[in-house]
Each structure stands twice: as structure tokens, then as C-alpha cells.
Amino acid sequence: MFKLLEEFKELIASKITSKQLAVAGGVNFAYSCTSLCANDCSGGCEGSCGSYCKQNSAPASR
Amino acid sequence: MERCITLILTQACNLKCTYCYEHQKSYKIMSFETAKMILDNEFSKSEGYDLTQIDLFGGEPFLEFDLIKKITEYVEQNFSNYNYRLFASTNGTLVHGDVQKWLLEKRCIFSCGLSLDGTRNMHNTNRSNSFDSIDLDFFASNYPNQTVKMTISVETLPHLYDGVVFCHEKGFKVACNLAFGIDWSDPKNMTVLEEQLMLLIDYYIKNPSIEPCTMLNGEIAQLGYEGIDEKCVKWCGAGTHMRTYDVDGKYYPCQFFTPMSTNSNHKYDNQAVVFEQNIPIEKLDKKCQICKVRAACPFCYGSNYANTGNLYIQDDNICKLTQKILLARSYFKALQWKNGQLDLTEEKEQALLRSILLIQENLK
After folding, report:
1. pTM, 2 dp
2. CA-based, 20 to 30 A from B309: which of B129, B150, B332, B334?
């Protein structure tokens, strides 16, 4: 299950047009809880993990 | 940069959830003096942080409502020069009457995250028959951007789809996790998960205005960048931007390392555990060293440590689950892309398409 048909994969491949960008080229994949946390820590971290569980529903104090 | 300071106000809880990983709970509570000392110390080291999130945790933190009020008042009175926000993770059963009234008064600085495990039957199966003790409308109307934390147990797995849709219909966004302890090497469990995820994918494709649950919506595009497989970066802020204090005021990298959470065989040793931002690949398990989708694996240092005694060695059972979720996610995002349901920059689109193919080629 969840495997794409070959035709679909070929369609996707045909749409890849630009050169692959390097990580160093402005994309920061170093620590970034706010942008990278995959939201499924698989263990029920119950909100302790920085930003992911907390969707900034309260504005900050200032 | 944000940081998160977690205070475990109490180890006690008024529920006994079937999957709870806090096996060593007690009735100990944090004193106000201890809380003040921690906050004074932490706020004195605020340089470089734009925002301090103070997370009030348990057990069930609202068992100590008076302490919550005192801490909030103390923060308001003493740290008004800082940018902060308070948050409590709660089972919701004690959030009524005066508690609700107080939360509404403090809504500009204080928010709550609710644990809600799906439909009434699902929730009651997992969470001590507590469904009818929760004022769902209060949480949905006052914290509309906050996901509910929905944990799926082996008993409720066959109803995953129903539970997620129920939460959406109640007005919630959903952060959906599989509980520890489900055996993913059992093909029956994996088949049920696949069927439920497929139903959810179909639901979200037909309802593109609903924000998909985190299990399907998580990011994979990072896999589409050149050189990402040569790095292994630390995912979360455990030990650096996240700091947790147990009821006695003792520091831990996150709540998974506290004695009530860890396996007694893997007691946390402050000196032995060092968090590195860029993890040397040779420190990883063999299977992780050669894994092509490593950069999208949300491996959790706390659960690794609790399960294996090593920050960088992931439990094989969680690995199986993660692979299946990433495969489902790549399939879902491919359908969203084909249907024009993703709002992407050209760069992000190219990275995503590469990542979809990479996952499809490497996972089964």
C-alpha cells in the first residue's frame, strides 16, 4: 500500500526540472524545532517538545 | 529563537490512561519556592532568545491550580520585560468553572493543549472513561489553532479514521501519535494502520480545506536537497532549547528523561549524556547510518534513551512505524500535488517531488 504507479512516478520525474539545491545553499536544516519537527514523535510527548505541540494559540506577552 | 522551559508541577494524575509512559508516578508536587528559583535562574539566562515558553506539565497540572495561578502571577510581576508565554498540557477533566474563568482572563499569555483520543468510545477506552468530563467546546472555541493530542492505542487503532474525523468535526486540528508498545512487526497491526491511513488520505483529498493531521502533514521535502543524507542534525531542543525540571527542581533535557518516564535500567546521567547539534553519523545505529530517509525521521532522543539507554539508537519497532508513515506521507503528498492542493514555491515543489521519489524508491 502507498506505492505510486510507475506512470505517476514518471510524471513526477518529468516535472523535476531544476538542479538539485544543496543544503548549504540557504536552507538551514540545523536545529529548528519550529520548522522541522515532524509532528509525530510517536511516543506522545504531550506538548513538551517546544513548538510543535503548541500552535501559538496565545499571543506572546509582548 | 524560542526556548521551552518545562516545569513538572505534579507527578499525580486523576486518570490512568492505558498507554501512559509515566510508570513511576507519585504524589509529589513542585513547591512554589522551587518554581520561583527555576524561573529566576532561567530568565537570567534569556540572552539570545526571542521568546520563552513556560510549559506547565504533569501528571495533570490542573490538580495544582493554585500553583499554576501563583506561577503565572509571579511571571507577570517579575518578567514583564521578557517575551514569554505559558502553556499547560491537560486532560481537560478539571477545566471547568473557576478554572475556565481564570483561563479566559489570562488568555493573552496562557494557552492549553488538550489530550483527546478520538470518539467517546475511543477516548473512554484509553483514558479512564473521562470523555464526558471534558468541555470540548471550551477548548475548541478558545484555542482554535492548538492541535488536540490524539494518542492511538492498539485497542483504538481500528478506529483511527473515525477518531480523527470526529475531532475535525468538533473543530479541532489534530496531532496524532501512536502509543508506545504497539507491535509493528505484527502484520495485523500494520495492515490496520495502512487501511486507516488510506481512509484518512481519501478524506483529506476530498476535503482540502481541512488541515491534515500531523501524521500525514509532516514535512518530507528536506529529503530533496543535495547533501542532506551526509548530515545528521539534532531534531528537537532537548538539552539545549528545551529544559525540563522535575517536581524536586532537578534538571532534565526533556520530560522523557525524568525518573517517572525512563526505564529504571536507563536512569538519566547528567554527565554521561551530551547533546550534539551535528551528530557524527558513526554514533548512529548501523541501520540509521545507511538509511536514505534519515533526514525525515523524527527520532526522539528521549524515547531512544528511555528504550535503549542511548540517545542515538532507535528502537526497531519505532523505525518500522516511521517508515510506514513516511511512505504514506509521500503517497498523500503526491496526490495533493497532482490535485493542485499544495501551495509551494518552485524550489519547495522541486524538493518535494524529489523527496517523494526517494521515499517511494527506498521504502516498502
Report:
1. 0.90
2. B150
